[in-house]
């Protein structure tokens, strides 16, 4: 059934039509607006609005030769980001698995996105009981070991912007002042790792280290976490060494050669 055009198209319908425009351009390479309108079964004004929105984000561009439209360079940016993330996950997962087997604790790899840490892969050691699946989960930065690593290596402007937000308290051990957090972040940069001792969840400790990309910038953090009775202060040095080695291995796989 051919869709009819409406001035106030529902948001989901608009998204669907925008995706179809991109698919048409991907298939045919260079298409006039009228041809797109005929294929979608909508008025030309609707296609004009869709193309204007897509063009504003660099996803579609006009061909100056014949006046048609083609895919824009903005798609390369999106594709590159996706490829980078998929590549990180593929390279990190085996290392994450090996670290979990070595420590018998839960390990995660997280990236920074929109002011939070997002876990992109996870592995559980044999000691883990009823392990939560953290893949895809968003976690705070200031109260987690991975989050502190991701914060520590930001440039000052980006860090200052993130630290304007209130630091939520999760346990009695959570750092809630910018001054104290900045002091910890300086220590992270000096030592090359971060810890979180019952700061996000009571009874849970963790240590994380930075994963670097080809240019040396920090692109992720790998962490190991376990219950405080098993991963206590006396256990942290050995755990930290293993986590740092794992971070270095993922960095090597991602093209970082210091």
TrEMBL record:
Organism the protein comes from: Nocardioides eburneus
Matching SUPFAM superfamilies: GAF domain-like (SSF55781), Winged helix' DNA-binding domain (SSF46785)
Keyword tags: DNA-binding, Transcription, Transcription regulation
Boundaries of every HTH iclR-type domain copy: 12-73
Domain of life where this protein originates: Bacteria
Residues in IclR-ED domain copies: 74-256
Secreted is among the record's keywords: no
UniProt xrefs under SMART domains: HTH_ICLR
UniProt cross-references to InterPro entries, sorted A to Z: GAF-like_dom_sf, HTH_MetabolicPath_Reg, Tscrpt_reg_IclR_C, Tscrpt_reg_IclR_N, WH-like_DNA-bd_sf, WH_DNA-bd_sf
Protein name from the UniProt record: IclR family transcriptional regulator
Lineage: Bacteria, Bacillati, Actinomycetota, Actinomycetes, Propionibacteriales
PANTHER family with a match to the protein in the record: HELIX-TURN-HELIX TRANSCRIPTIONAL REGULATOR, ICLR FAMILY (PTHR30136), HTH-TYPE TRANSCRIPTIONAL REPRESSOR ALLR (PTHR30136:SF24)
Pfam families assigned to the protein according to its UniProt record, in alphabetical order: HTH_IclR (PF09339), IclR_C (PF01614)
């Amino acid at each position: 059934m051919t869709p009819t055009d409406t001035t106030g198209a529902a948001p989901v319908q608009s998204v669907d039509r925008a995706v179809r425009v991109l698919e048409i351009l991907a298939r045919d390479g260079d298409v006039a607006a009228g041809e797109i309108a005929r294929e979608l079964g909508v008025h030309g004004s609707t296609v004009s609005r869709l193309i204007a929105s897509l063009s504003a984000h660099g996803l579609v561009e006009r061909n100056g030769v014949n006046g048609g439209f083609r895919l824009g360079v903005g798609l390369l940016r999106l594709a590159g980001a996706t490829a980078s993330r998929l590549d990180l996950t593929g390279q990190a997962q085996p290392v994450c698995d090996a670290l979990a087997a070595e420590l018998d604790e839960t390990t995660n790899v997280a990236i920074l996105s929109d002011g939070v840490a997002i876990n992109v892969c996870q592995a559980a050691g044999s000691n883990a009981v009823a392990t939560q699946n953290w893949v895809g989960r968003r976690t705070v930065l200031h109260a987690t070991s991975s989050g502190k690593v991701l914060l520590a290596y930001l440039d000052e402007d980006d860090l200052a912007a993130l630290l304007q937000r209130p630091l939520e308290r999760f346990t009695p051990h959570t750092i809630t002042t910018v001054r104290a957090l900045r002091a910890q972040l300086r220590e992270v940069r000096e030592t090359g790792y971060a810890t979180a001792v019952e700061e996000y969840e009571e009874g849970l400790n963790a240590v994380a280290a930075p994963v670097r990309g080809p240019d040396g910038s920090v692109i992720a953090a790998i962490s190991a976490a376990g219950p405080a009775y098993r991963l206590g202060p006396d256990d942290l040095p050995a755990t930290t060494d293993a986590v740092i080695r794992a971070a270095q291995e993922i960095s090597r796989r991602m093209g970082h050669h210091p």
